[in-house]
Amino acid sequence: DAGVIQSPRHEVTEMGQEVTLRCKPISGHNSLFWYRQTMMRGLELLIYFNNNVPIDDSGMPEDRFSAKMPNASFSTLKIQPSEPRDSAVYFCASSRGGVYNSPLHFGNGTRLTVT
Amino acid sequence: GENVEQHPSTLSVQEGDSAVIKCTYSDSASNYFPWYKQELGKRPQLIIDIRSNVGEKKDQRIAVTLNKTAKHFSLHITETQPEDSAVYFCAASETGFQKLVFGTGTRLLVSP
Fold it and tell me: Inter-chain contact A42–B102, Cβ cutoff 8 Å?
């Protein structure tokens, strides 16, 4: 089991540029979550999918953020245009049937720096 | 929605001492309370969890207690070791058990 795979591990970009973060959940997991981690706000849930369908995107900070899950093995989080305050570590996580039924498994995260 | 508060934000102990981290939650319907450990530069990993049908759960040196009436739960680490140094996050699941809301984290430092 390769675990949740995220790419890239690090991303440095200039303000105004488009950023795309990628995630491959654990095979067989049907719930996928995007979290953002900062020193000030801790771990914030941005959006989560169940069976590839977005269930709750209330944590997405602005229209600049969008997420997709075109199939069970791939999801993207896009920021367009990026701003310095978007700098954070973005984690993707997956579980089987929701967090009550199976633990949440995190990927190694993408550290985003927007200059 | 659910709101989870965690205290203290930092905790320093001597090796061998016990450490206690406390969390409160707001949604009385929450039923699942996991704890995650995050070492520096790494991903959060589940260390223990508890469901609302039990009041306490132990796994070697760590234990979690739950008081549903008061809506708080705690992590207890006994005989702390330097490798316990990390950030610990509590969390609670919102109604429907689909997603977790995390506390703000406690940075635990265990000095030899």
Answer: yes
The confidence score (pLDDT) of residue B1 equals 79
Q: For the segment A48-99, what is each residue's pLDDT rounded down to a tens digit?
A: 999 999 998 989 988 999 999 999 999 999 999 999 999 999 999 999 877 7
The 3-class SS string of A4-60 reads: CEEECCEEEECCCCCEEEEEECCCCCCEEEEEEEECCCEEEEEEEEECCEEEECCCC
Nearest-angstrom CA–CA distance, A115 and A17: 10
CB A68 within 8 A of CB A75: yes
Q: Give how far the C-alpha of residue A73 lies from the chain's centroid of Cα atoms, to the nearest Å.
A: 13
CB contact residues (below 8 A), chain A span 63-82, against chain B: none
